[in-house]
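Typical record was shown:
=====
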Amino acid sequence: MAISDLLSHLKDLSKPLGKDDGEKYAEALIGLLQDAQSYVQNLAMECLGQLVNFISPNTSQAAIISICNRIQDAGKDAGNNALSVALRVVISKISENEEQKGMLAHMATPVVNTLEKSEGLSTDVMVDIFGALFEILASSGNHLAADSEAVAKVQTLLLKYISHKSIPVRRRAIEALGKFIVNTPGERSEQALATIFSRYKTSESEEDSGVLLRVLVTIIRQSSQHVETLVPDIIDIELRAVDESECGRERRVVSLVAFETITHYCLKYAQERRDEIYDVAVRALKYDPNYNYETEGEEEDEGDGGDDMDTGSEDGLDEFGDDFDEDIYEDDEDDSWDIRLNGVKLLSAFIKSGLYTPDDMVGRIGAELVGCFREREDIVRAEILLAYATILDQLKVVLAPSSSADMDVEHQAPGILSSQVLRAVPVLISVIKTYTKSTETKQLAFAIFSRLIAINSSILDSLLPKITPLVVATLDAEDTAGALKSASTSLVKTNLKLDALDFLLAFVGRQDLPGAAADFLLAVQDGVVKGVSSKTFQAPMTSVYVANGLVRLLRVSVDQDARDISPFKLWIHKMADLALQNTGSKDSLLSKSCYVFLGTLLQQFGDMVDDSAIDRSLEALVAWKSGSTQDLDAIGALTTAVTQPTHLPSSKVLDIAPKALAQADKLLTKNDQVVNAAGLGVIKSLSYYGGEALSNSASELLKDIINVINMSPISPPSLALQAFAAVCPFVPAGLMQSIAPSLVKSLSAAVIYDKQSASALSELFLSVGTNFSEQFDQWNDEILRHWSGAYADFVKQRASKGDAVLQVQFPTQMLSNASKSILALRRGYLRANDQEWSNEFLTKHISAKADANVGLACLALRSLGYASIYGLLSEDSRLVERLYELVKSEDDDLRGEAATALGNYTGSHPAMLSQVFERAINADGIVELSQLQAVQVAIDYVVGQKRDSQVANGAWQQITEYVHETQKQLPDILAQSLAVFAAGFPKTYIPLLASCINASGNNVYAKTVFITAFRTLLAYKSLCSVCEEQIKLVLFSVLSNIGDSDVNIRRLSLLAMYTIIQTRQALIKDIVGSLQPELFKQTKVDDSLIRYITMGPYTRKVDDGLETRKCAYQCVYMLVRSLHKLADEKSVIDCVIRGINDEQEIRVVVQQIVCESISKMTGAYASHMADIVAAIEKALDTKLPPKAVKHEIEKHQEMLRSTVSILVHLEPATKLPGCDSEKYNERVNRVSSDQENGLAGYYKEFASALANSNNKA
């Protein structure tokens, strides 16, 4: 079989090969690796990569050994063949197979022997072999740990090669040594780390200390947990090293890389020495002994002929020409650039880490970067500009209006930035003039400009005369293609012209058009037109979107400033012509952008554009029939053009309305939701032009809309409901009367059962109430009937469930929909009859007889709550007192809805909040809880919706003072309320909450509330970035309470730790190492918490620490599940051994820990197998007490079952080399044959389940 045919055969294989075939193929392919033709070698390598998926572990093992032997035999001649590459490929492929990782650990020895016993291996071959060793350590390091001889060999080899004279070999050895220390637990890896660190601390050789530091840096990057305690010493040593004047260039670079790594991975230690490390970065950034940037800047500034430039001159174009040249200027004699480069990278790490406030980030770091914009080396300059752009990205997030949680914080950064930009932009323009061939500098300049105006749209206005020539020259330049030469930036596009257009797209997104901005856009308008015809990828589409934004901006300027836009009129008509020409383009993105532009143009300037242009544009927008993708683009543009408010003359809309509506009506007959939605959008938009637009088609349109609704009556499309609401005012009352019976029933059912269309249904009922008030009772009664039926069904189900009442949930979404619909219908009715708002129609249902019809009373209360939110309810003391009475109701549903209504009313009248809280804490029992529920609802409204920081501050003080002063157990709802404050105003209340938790003199009850509040906050499904930043800052101090003197506080703190490991690992990963000693301490039995209760002849043991200990074990389980690389493996094994003979509640969690971690810590389990088996034997040999009662027998059987499960799941660790598995196998034999105690049945059950699980995997 030809080798190419073999490759095809292997790719088509679906089941493993037989032993003989596998060995035959492997041997033949390995032989071909030394073929004279490289083509054959490459095919053989590819075949081997495929083959290992279909051969047995033994065959794979033999193949690896064979390749290693051949490399040794070839010696120095191996550099020109494919053996070493094949070794790396085969091992890499095998490492992807979980079942073969144990076998792969055995391969460390032949790989190490290959390096030790081969003489004169080339650099390439050694790099490949170290790559193979790296793969073994990365995937099977924990399996290797049990083979002490192999571990010793690997350690010795790696320590030898980290000082190899070849840089590529040295780097690979360093990477492999890092993996060895991180992934191979045991004495040898700890010894290796200790040796490296000791040599690093005492080395007097810059070269040696630099190499050793690189190893430590590699380990930090792979798992900072392993060297966390060494980081403070590393910082001390490196701060001293970089202060020494004789520190060499290479040594200084390594030091900077170390600081950058520590800042990324060990933030808390960088925080402690922040300013010192920052000074190191700044000195490195400015390190250029052969150059004076300030002098150059002064000379260039003096030569600058002012702000303006003749953009039409030849010199002006050349100054910013797009000469992408291979010979970008570099100083061949400059050997300091890599120090500056790594200084910038360290500053970038500072920027991303949040070590400085936004004010300092801009004022300090930003100022230093601007001072170095004139950097001579392109690669360094690119990193400097990239770092500055990163500052702007970070600042944009902090200042984003959507970040409502941060609205209570004032920043000075915008003002600092505005001043800084006045210097930065001229320097940047000057740099571009100096290095005209550096395309990347221009691209990054546009990236910076775009980010600046995203922060402050007018920040560049005074500098636009300096920027204009650059933009004009870029847009006028000939098209260029191809990606950038440097890969150092991810912020720019593959073409300079596209970056300039992206900047313009951001610029036209502003909301005002002062004179300078108008002049700038006037200067670049021709370039935008030219861009539509560009051959550069995406440039035409982007140009059209820029034009679209400019049209919107011009309209704003006309409306706000009465601007004369006559200078832009010719441009508008040119763009309209180009858009019309390209609506049929084969480039779908360009075609869509042109439709969008035409829709916007007609909407914004339909009253200023020539009639002929309007007519041609409208003709293009109604030239659709079938609902194809291009048709949908046209329909979307038409909807934009005619949707009010629009400047398109009504007469023009009415001219095309009949044709557009007729075509839209046809779209409603299509069995396609997207096409239906397009048609409904057109109908809805044109309906607002009244009877003239609809002509005689309103009735037919309504019928077809109803057909769309009837296609899914329980969940009708929202747009169909909105179209119905828009059309129904223009249909005859008789038609509505005739269709009302069936329509009322279906829509009333949708009100109750549809969770998606609540707002659209409200819009529909408002329209019905307004236009057909005579049908009000019919619609109102039907909604009430459907809700009453739904509530009755709920009550019936709840009653039938008996003790399982919690399984039937209150139909709160149904109630919400019904309440909103009732309110909308009533508001429409009152509007139609010119009547004032009145609560009477709702309050009648919550009269003294409210208990007689709880369903309608709940509906009335929910509606009153919404009326409060909508601002419809004025102060009404009688209503408030009635709500207080209902809060005392014996009916749970009624009481809950009354509390919610009272809370919403209080939120809309926040002056009441203090009084409501006082009444709540002075009430008793269930009434107190219900009134506190009202307080929580009010706080939700005040903090979450009204963003009233003043009211929030008063409520926080009132609640926290009460919590601090009260010497009794308090309800969790208080903690939930405090969590709302923390989520709403994180920078204010998260630090305060942490302070409350750790306040001296706290009573246990108060601390319980505050920790529960923090845990509630952690459990929120979504938290803003500001929240997470604040949580991270206080997390260590809060979670340190896992070692509190009170057992209940420890339990709650452990629950908080569990929650954050489960949901937000990024926040805890930097501190989890520091918390682990106390965590594992909590897994030990605390004898002081054990007491004995004597009841007659019986004595019962009570362990008051059991629940806390169980929480600790659950934290360990979540740790090995979510952050196993950071877990202290020795401590995990120790707690497993303890837990096997703990209470059954603990043993169940230990079972989960073993199942989760056995594949991740196999080597650690193998190393401690004897101790684990001894613990299992002790548990299995436990005897029942004489005359054991039923529950004792059941508990004993559960213990046996869990212990056998642990035994079965340990089996993979016994397969590792060096594992003392004799006692394990002995115990397995006894268990699998123990029929008397039922152990054999348990063993068979778990062994079978594990085998099935492995087969599925």
Observations:
- The longest strand covers residues 1090-1095.
